[in-house]
Amino acid sequence: MDIYSSSLEFIKTHWSTCAIGAVVLIFVYWYGTRSRSRLEKTFPGIPGPKQWPFIGSLPDVIRSGGQMHLQFDNDYKKFGKVYRTMFFGSPSLVVSDPAMIKDIFVKYFDCFHDRPSLASTPEPFDKGLFDVKGEKWKRIRTIASPSFSSHKLKGMVPLMNVRCDTLVSKVEEYAKSGETFDIVKDQQALTLDIFFNFADQGIETDFQKNPNDPVIKKVLKSMNPGFWEDMFFFFVLPNLPFGKTILNTDTVAKFQNRYFYEVADLAREVIAAKRKDSTQK
Question: Per the UniProt record, which residue ranges are transmembrane (predicted)?
């Protein structure tokens, strides 16, 4: 009874402080759960992983070791081929049905051209196909599409086979030695070897045999800056008050893309070298 009386007396004496505290708590609760409410209103009746206040599905990502594909695979097995989730603070559908994916990317590709802007992209990366929208996107896609015709892709197969043979040889060496190895790193090197051969014709690379090459280190670092950095910028910050506003500032955008600038400088050096060679010829 004394505790009740003391509490009542405290409220009477500090009613304004208690009122402000109650309003703040209600606002914090509303803001923390609004993402879940938006998700339920946008995609009612569709199952999906639990969304925690402020951090969304971050606990699931951490349990998956920060590997998004593992989280998607676990959710797919649990919720089916189409399920809802919050992606970078926005209600999203995850689709893993092959027929539906084909319709999205091929049959109705013109209906899915504008990707959501997760964060501000600084120049010159804002001119990429993943960032431009509307007519600019259609123009760039129209220019790029002929480079990926079935005829041209078939012409690339012999060059791809040469690089794949190198990977097969490495796997055979691993098998003979009996040592464990990380196949992902070898596949990354294979991908970059193929990319450099096609995108930068005349530039010979052999990242599979030289995994410590500075070029491959820069490229891989640009794609994966670090586990905790990814967690903060992609899952924590977008769910905080004014988080998306902070993400769209030039300072944060340039910090997030700092490794891409190094790759861009490398690309400029390659282009300059090719132009110099063509001029001398």
Answer: 14-32
> Would you give the DSSP letter of residue 85?
E
Q: What global pTM score does this model have?
A: 0.53
SS (H, E, C) 66-112: CCHHHHHHHHHHHHCCEEEEEECCEEEEEECCHHHHHHHHHHCHHHC
In the block, residue with structure tokens 């070898």: 186
pLDDT digits (tens, 9 = 90+) for 190-245: 888 888 777 655 566 788 888 788 777 877 777 777 777 777 777 677 767 677 77
Specify the pLDDT at position 21.
Answer: 80
For residue 93, give the H/E element and its range.
Answer: strand 90-95
Phi-psi map region of 242: left, alpha, beta (phi>0 left; psi -120 to 50 alpha) = left
Q: Is 56 left (phi over 0), alpha (psi -120 to 50) or beta?
A: left
13/22 Cα distance (integer angstroms): 15
81, two tokens: 């081929």
Q: How far apart are CA 43 and CA 94, in angstroms?
A: 12
Tokens, residue 179: 């040592």
Comparing CA positions, the residue from 267, 262, 250 lying closest to residue 126 is 250
Judge whether 188 and 163 are in contact, CB under 8 Å: no
